[in-house]
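Fold this: Ribosomal RNA small subunit methyltransferase A
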Amino acid sequence: MTESELPPLREVINSFELRAKKSFGQNFLLDLNLTRRIARIPGDLSKAVVYEVGPGPGGLTRALLMEGAGRVQACEMDKRCIPALAEVSKAFDGRLSVYEGDALKIDEHELLQAKPDEGIHIVSNLPYNVGTMLLIRWLTLKTWTPWWQSLTLMFQKEVAERIVAAPGTKEYGRLSILAQWRSTAKIAMRVPAAAFTPPPKVNSAIIHLKPTQPLDDSIQLKSLELVVEKAFQQRRKMLRSSLKGLSVDPKELLKMAEIEETERAENVSVADFVKLAKCYEQLKTH
Ligand code: SAM
């Protein structure tokens, strides 16, 4: 079968009996125009390996291959999808490889086997809970620059808005800071619930995220996570009170970081959180 002979996705779903299962968080994208628009978000992928988690019946996968991705490595948990994806692989001359398993448990380096000249771009329409867990895993790598060059991921609209949120908004919080400390994140596309089969209860949005130089390379991620966690545990309280759970004097810490004691977590910039983490590390060791 060639690329042009691949049957429409609805036919694939019927013939391989891929009726969407709730337990796998399955909401499929069947409109190839839409998936091709998504596949174009990361830019030129001709020399890249694209890592797609959860290809399902292969709509987005086909789009990535049609848009010229060098190769696609997919990881799918639902074994019913594997034979359907094998046909896609055949139609695209083996540029698609599929691993059957749980993306939360695999070693990505081993799976991807990227050559030094192949950039890795992650493009996925994932179940929302798995997406958030993987995003945090990919954002909290100990070493930066990360092994991936960009992330293009579907999220529930509210979660997407939290990832890109600016200080002073109600969406701003832990996820915004983890995402923006050493990358830039933007909403690349809004996707209405009706675009999925079956439609989920909420609207979605696609986040495109690219790594940047960290605001401060010297701090440890765990200090930043700790400071942010304490500050946002009581987001409306003043920092001098919400930071009490840390092992250092909050007033001394805030003075050292040149942040007002009366400031509230939701108004503190990402750069100031990084500063807080740095001062926390210095005070802790004295
Ligand atoms: N990418 C397809 C599309 O856009 O039509 C399917 C999207 S559907 C929302 C999510 C897919 O992720 C399903 O095929 C599901 O089986 C798969 N999946 C769910 N949890 C997974 C996991 N932990 N590891 C790998 N795949 C998973």
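Strands lie at 28-29, 48-53, 71-76, 96-100, 119-124, 150-156, 183-191, 196-197, 204-211. Residues 3-211 form a domain with the Rossmann fold fold (CATH 3.40.50.150).
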